[in-house]
Design a protein that fits this description.
Layout lengths: L9 H7 L4 H4 L3 E5 L4 E6 L13 H19 L5 E11 L7 E11 L3 E9 L5 E12 L3
Antiparallel strand pairs: 1-2, 2-4, 3-6, 4-5, 5-6
Amino acid sequence: MRIWKKPVSVGELHAIHKDTAPEHLGMEFLEVGDDFIRARIPVDKRTKQPYGLLHGGVSVVLAETLGSCGAAYACPEGHRPVGLDINANHIKGATSGWVTGITRPVHIGRTTQVWQIDMRNDAGELTCVSRLTLAILAPR
């Protein structure tokens, strides 16, 4: 069942992120399904920490971006999501290639939403799991 309350596409997601942190980090939106969004981020000089691994904060940027996009397009017109809490468990380091994340809703309520974001390396190995909780603000 399609959960989106507003039109959403890969092109739309790229357009709204013009000149923002995700674009500067090289994030690419890949797919919008009926109940998920998929994007990836490169593991390169922009996104690595000094020891050569994908920076944990970059994984959180990917998670926050995916979950926030999901929430924004699953909200009724005029409502807007704002983050309340995000957590991330770093499972396996990535030193090259891409990390791809997929977000799906855990809960879509009237005043809160919770989104799960799973991130995997090019070999399909889980690198990070994250959960984002958002408040849904009604129009003013």
